[in-house]
Amino acid sequence: MKRLAILGSTGSIGQSTLSIVEQFPERYSVASLAAGRNLEEALAQTVRWRPRMVSLATEELAGELSKRLRQAGVAGVDVVYGTEGTVACSTLDDADFVVSAIVGVSGLEATHAAILAGKPVGLANKECMVAAGEILTRAARERNVPILPIDSEHNAVHQCMRVGAHAEVKTIWLTASGGPFRQLPLDQFASITPEQALKHPTWVMGRRITIDSATMLNKGLEIIEACRLFDVPPSQVRVTVHPQSTVHSLVEFVDGSILAQISVTDMRLPILYALAYPERPASKLTFDLGALRHLDFEQPDFERFPCLRLAYEAAEKGGAHAIALNAADEVAVEAFLERSIPFTGIPRTIEAVLASTPEAHPATIAEVLAADQLARQMARAFVA
Ligand SMILES: NC(=O)c1ccc[n+]([C@@H]2O[C@H](COP(=O)([O-])OP(=O)(O)OC[C@H]3O[C@@H](n4cnc5c(N)ncnc54)[C@H](OP(=O)(O)O)[C@@H]3O)[C@@H](O)[C@H]2O)c1
Is residue 359 part of a domain? Predict the structure, then answer.
């Protein structure tokens, strides 16, 4: 029985993880849950799963959750809060495996602490890898702790990599759906509304990642994530636009063979893979190959999606530039969702912040968070 710490339990990945626990009660149980502000969902999950520890974003919310749990007659649950609370959840003695699915860098300290505590991590939170991948992967290597990608593309790459040696890999091909604006005339980009951008053609996800898919900044973050997870330079990671989102990614080997991973567009599959690795439990997440008609692949359009170009630039420089790419995007996406800037203001904000970011390679999580704050301040100033 694997006991899970689920960071970001109230989110899209967190809830999908709990549905896997539900389907495989003989394999998985819940040791701790960490959420942000969704008190009602955190309460329902605590009542249902009876973890030993639950964390919410603030002391006030934690107090309210404790009160509601007492009223519901639920005892024996430690209710904690804030960054310390998330770290306590991820390092809990009872937890054997940590699912890192808090959005943004809020989950960074808890993910790092889990690795330092020797706990295997299933990583959905790509922002952690982008901001602090150098630190996280070094810590994981030193302690021999596996980091198993849950992000569907990296999960696909992980699966394809199992058949060859690292030195035999020529190119990692990340597939991208191209988002909802793949064919929209360029002169209409400035008038894209949040409602249009929140409609992803193939995946149902959280708000930030959905907007990031529409700008393709999400793919940019994934390029950096792939470099760090698989220890390859940016020149070995390429993007191909694949509108069907059926092939989740591919690995090209030096002999000319290309391996692809195909499955349903359902995050429960990569989550199950990460939880069960190296086993493959039987699941009902089957793919109907007979219904498959097209597999299209196109070159990405860097003019339409300037975020991709910016991401390659940040990937080459690494360190503070990768941190700034993520932080500036988060601020810009919020501003776009609040209608303070147009859709085209997202890449403009990122470009301005990257241009003002000094080259640096933070060596600790505290330095990463300081660089993150600096980039956010610059992004807010630019947005204003
Ligand atoms: N969804 C996908 O299909 C998908 C695919 C690949 C990768 N990812 C990555 O997985 C991560 C999660 O994505 P998602 O789509 O699940 O996002 P989401 O639905 O927006 O959920 C985010 C989760 O983070 C929690 N959270 C936010 N701020 C927090 C804080 N300060 N402290 C503790 N918890 C906090 C939220 O809690 P509350 O809701 O309680 O505030 C929620 O549980 C992201 O890094 C995303 O890029 C997602």
Answer: no
